[in-house]
User: Fold this.
Amino acid sequence: MNRIRIVGILLSVALMWSCNVTKHVPEGQHLLHKVHIQSDVKDIQVTELDDYLRQTPNSKVFGLFRMQLGIYNLAGKDTTRKVNRLLMRLGDPPVLYDESQTTISAQQIQKLMVNKGYMNAKVTDTVKLKNKKAIVSYLIKSNQPYLLRNYNVNIDYPVLQRIASDTARSLIRNGMLFDTDVLDQERERVASRFRERGFYNFNKEFLVYKADSSFNENKVDLTLDLREYLKTGKDSVNQIIFKQYRIGNVYYYSNNTLNINSNTDNQGKPDTTIYKNFSLISPTGKFISLNALIHNTHIEPNELYSDLSVERTYASLNSLAPVKYVDITFKESSDSTLDCQIVIVPAKTISLSADIEGTFTETNNGLFWGGATSLTWMNKNTFGGAESLSVQAKAALEWQNGIWAQELGSQINLRFPKFVFPVGSFDFKRGIHANTDFRTNFLYQYRPGEFTSTNLSGALNYSWLRRRIRHNLDLVNLSYVYFPFIDTNFKNNYINTGRYNKYNYENHFIMRASYNAAFSTFNANRPMRNYSNYSFSIESAGNLLYGLNHLLNSEVSPDGSYKLFDIRYAQYLRGEYNASYNQIIDKNNKFVYHMGLGLGIPYGNADIIPFERRFYSGGANSVRGWGESRLGPGVYVERQDVPTRDYNQVGDIKLDLNMEYRVKLFWLLEGALFLDGGNIWTIKDYPEQPGGAFKLDSFMNQIAIAYGAGIRMDFSFFVARLDMGVRLFNPALSRREQWRINPVSDDFAFHIAIGYPF
Assistant:
């Protein structure tokens, strides 16, 4: 708490001192206070022009306060004092106006305009100096641009001519601006497509444009051609550049054995393993099998050379657990053949880690505190084929009203870096380039005075990446939940009375299959561009079992359902979709918008979806004015007569709508303001969840709204997050009380989490 107060005081003082922005501005110099760009061109965004400014003002927090500058200004001028040096390091020094940088910025903007086709554009800069502050303005007068009248391709090589003349893929269109950036991208596209067809030595620099603008109409005729020295077709350079290569042999070298003669007597003579055109050369006692390497190599012998195959091979081999890093080179082995040499450096194969964590659970009777510990052992090369085996054991204790609740669990996961299936040829399985995971989980729970439960599950999962889309398929996932003991008083007082959802305390069996995919438009080469993230999943359970029961005319139980091991198995269909959009303002500020939808439908052998597969609302990644699973369904009112949380607060339909403004504060600290909306609903009108059913004519009035602020610590490899949400609209209250204009203590929720919420 003291640390939180210190940070709060520091931020408050920094806000106050951010008003005194010229404290550390030397005499005779000026703080760059504002920069304005005014342009008469609508096709070029001002944010794009910002990238060409050599000087920009100190960034603002929430667009109002120069927080980083305020932190810096807290420091005194005596740099021998540690506190002053610390504050200067945490904050940002004032950006001082530099006339030369302003001139260069105007020249850079002028160059951009010319590159965009505005050959006659004029950029002027002005500066106003007052009170040690400088306000710089750039005025862009575009004048008439040059447009592309006709575009032609004139290349003698048929394959290259076809690629460049592909109007469906070409980035160049008649009537477009004479944009040199687009022209360069088109050269890159053509060269890349040409290299995909085996022309290893070709690059975009061999392509040139010839422009004719002698019409006095600001029109340009453009022709894509080869450089003159490549048109003869006779010299040695030409023959090399236009030589089409196929892949010959693929050689793998482990432990840096590329230079075999460098091996010492201690290392021994390298072993060589061969399969078709693949060879593994490694010291005695090779660390990884040739089979595993082939399955994760996209470079194909006897196929044409391809840049894309090289990139995919880098990604696949580097993802193998026992691989530290990979280097791929090519060497001409014959007139039109390239041998591929892949050097693989191994990583450590055995690891052991332990985690200790503190836990607390918010209940109607207060907070239950506890702790948990886990021990994980991992072998990254279990069978010599880069198979990764991890075994985890976990134990947790929680103090509940004078009694310890216990939880014991274990998890085993075995990953094969290839597609494992009982049928299918080697080449077919290799072509999929998938990872195969076998997972098992065991969980034992003891809740004193309530129940004892055992949960056993297992799954067969496939995952792969193709065309920037990540795919994940659970071919089969089995879950068995058994309650060997339920306390009689607990059953009579909580389950039978509806205070707890009775379906949560029934033995059940789930046999399901699911598929999910995720895609992002983020471009690491252009990180300041807006981007989106998408994911969706679909899941089905019980259909195979239900079909077999029908086919075999199995006996139907008195309640009209089929059973397996005397347990009514679940049958349902469940889908979920998430989309987020990141709007980049500048390197320190951005808006993020998120929408999440979920729908689950029980049918056939089930009246309700199993508790663990239903949706919940509230928590660190949902509507943050409520705790996890403390909102909804619908206008359902949380019961106060239960000792822990109300387990009726789950549903079959989910809606999340979120908007968040994120800003860099100082040092590792980031800030956020957010607005959340959403709720869950049940697909049927269950008696244990009154007011929870989804109805088309009323659900809009049941969308809860919350707002709040957060502090995040960005450590690059992970983000630690603390968010405070405040309820603005609570649909579960009466009409007079729903809008929480003057919130009380129950309207606040705090969330500690790892990673961004979406």
About this structure: The two ends are 28 Å apart (CA to CA). Residues 54 and 483 are 67 Å apart (CA to CA). The mean pLDDT is 88.
